[in-house]
């Protein structure tokens, strides 16, 4: 494992996260549906994976309400699982966890939160990635109700449940002890919340390849690709990166770091 984050990956941040100083050795990334992580964070994940960071994907629903071809309905869950595993492999992720909740019905319930807490305590990551719990009114497609539920469930889990030894005591009894998450990175949120951009220019093609694996979701794959490239280039320009660069953007939240005071 590397001693520090991949500092060779430039970033623009007002978040306080310094990739040259804050260690990133393990990451858990949560998405509501298969393909959410590929749209939102797979370039950053690919850069981390290249640097030797251990990355886990967790997909909270089976994506059973997704797709556009009626011929896929009977096998859509198995198809989307396989698509996600293959896409993850293209960006260096070998561990993909499926929580198995029904697409369109995800809620930040205690059942979901317990599953999230259990996985985070097992992996003990330096960074947790999740969809943003706030609705994006400029582009409401980012704010599918399952996306918001993913963000809310993970945020509630990260603080206080993951670090509270008395929350979900059955997890501690199973050997999953309380753990303090240092950083929460939220994606697909409102533009005004963005405080961190990562230059993923070297990983764009891996990201695009991963997105193309999700064939059940793209009736117009060329339009999808063009849209993703345009948004990433605009994000890089907003960060002041070099012309032609591509970036992914986040709302980075410091959860437990040297200046953190518990309970405040």
TrEMBL record:
It comes from the Bacteria. Keywords: Zinc. It holds the Pfam family PIG-L. The keyword Secreted does not apply. This is PIG-L deacetylase family protein.
